[in-house]
Write the structure tokens for this entry.
Amino acid sequence: MPVRPLRFASTLGLGVLAAACAGNNVTATPTTTGGTTTGGTTTGSDALAPYYLTFALCADSQGPDCTKLRLGDTQLSTTAAGVGRLFSCNAANPGAPGSIRARITWIDDATSTWNLLRKPFLPSGTFAPASGSYTLQEANGTRTIQVNNLPVDGRIGDWPMSRYAALTAIDPNPGTPAARSYSFTLPVAPTVNVTPTCVSLGAIGVTTNGVVIYNAADARGNDAVAHEIVDAHGGHPAQTDYHYHFVPERLDRAPLADGHSAVIGYIRDGFAIYGYKGVGGGELRNTDLDECHGHSHGTLGYHYHATIEYPYTIGCYRGTPR
Ligand SMILES: [Zn+2]
Ligand SMILES: [Zn+2]
């Protein structure tokens, strides 16, 4: 299998990201969707109710309040890292295509928060791409991960979203996921740098489900998880390039003996990213983690964690990205 250098993949990712959220005047036509009939201009909360989800992470008192998540739009910096922020290599680009803000009902500008439980998600349907693949090999201090960027567990929404008028009226993303080879060549024992590094657009890591991770920002530099509609399994396409901006909670399974989450993926600097829970099984908040969204304890050494608040995956690279 030809190995695509990650640098090339990342550059390509930047290009497709801008095009992916293209608000290129996709016309929403009334259609019957997964359980509800919606009109092209009906975007009220009642019309969206069939698309709401519940999350185990939101069902207890641990971790952030899912109904009042801090909006990350103003938490992007191109100059410095900070707890709860994204140190981005790319400045915000307010003119880039994306969701139609006036139709987003789950963001509260007055409090700069958003409600995960009142955000719609594209359901499953008839869309059935090729099977996902994920291989991991370790040799001579190098970990090589190869994927086709489709979910190994087969769980994906009914793309393209344009078939769901109520959703595409808010987020006119025209993309449809397709297989794409990625190869990550990472150090098994990466080094913690004194100075963290900014996070690029495109793939910043890969999950054990065979799907790449993008950072917390959309093409405009806004909070992607708050603004963009993804499917009920956590991902969406940039043209054909499927990706997660946050970690689907189903990937956070089979915790370690002490209750700490297991590895759910690897970041481009070689450090692992674990799920939502720390030692003892408690759900983590940003304040439990450093500015890159990681910490070091016990035998795990330095590692990142997922949280259900911005920046969701990593805030900066603690090691050297490959
Ligand atoms: Zn995206
Ligand atoms: Zn940890």
Observations:
- The chain has one domain: 6-24+43-305.
- The pocket of zinc ion (ligand 1) is lined by residues 214, 224, 228, 236, 238, 243, 245 (CB under 6 Å).
- The chain is about 10% helix and 20% strand.
